[in-house]
Design brief:
This protein is of the alpha/beta class. The protein contains 5 helices and 8 strands, in the order ββαβββαβααββα. The chain is 35% helix and 17% strand. The strands form 3 sheets. It has a 4-stranded parallel β-sheet with strand order 6-3-7-8, covered by helices on one side. Strand 4 and strand 5 form a beta hairpin.
Amino acid sequence: MKYFDCWLRPIDKKEYARIQQRKELYEKGLGRVFVFLDVDGVLNISKTDDDYTNVTSSTVWKIRNNVLKWLKEMDYFINVQFIWLSTWQNECNEINEKIGIANFPISNEYINPKEVDSLTIKKKQLNKLRSLYPLAKIISIDDDLEKTEVSSDFHLQPNPKYGLTDKDLEILTNKIKKYLSKKKGFY
């Protein structure tokens, strides 16, 4: 049997097996970063002296412009997948439309538990994604959940009055870049 790489160059069986192994590891999440993002208390805030934008869905969210700019910038990273972890579900994508980026998946696409307690639901959804992508790095950003309650590699719990601060955005950016740079060693 003849094997070919993506440029249709002939390769030997050993190289083909190495490519298949990389593919399997990628499907398990190697080199990928999932960022679970809540809205209320994280993006939607009550107090700010900074410039902000009102985003309208069935309600009006007040979101700092620096946070919207950060979301748009982070969306350019190919191996970073944002997922809405919010009771607002699909309405969260009104934020994406406002800043001109593609819609993010919602956490209910991975698991829709029967519980009515939103914190229990969020924990189960994070655990489900961890089981689907055991090699991925998972970042969760939620003002209600504590680090000890989630299976994330990194959890940020912003103050719900102020949401994500510029310092938080810097920490998150550095963490994402660090996780992405670790995957380079494999390839």
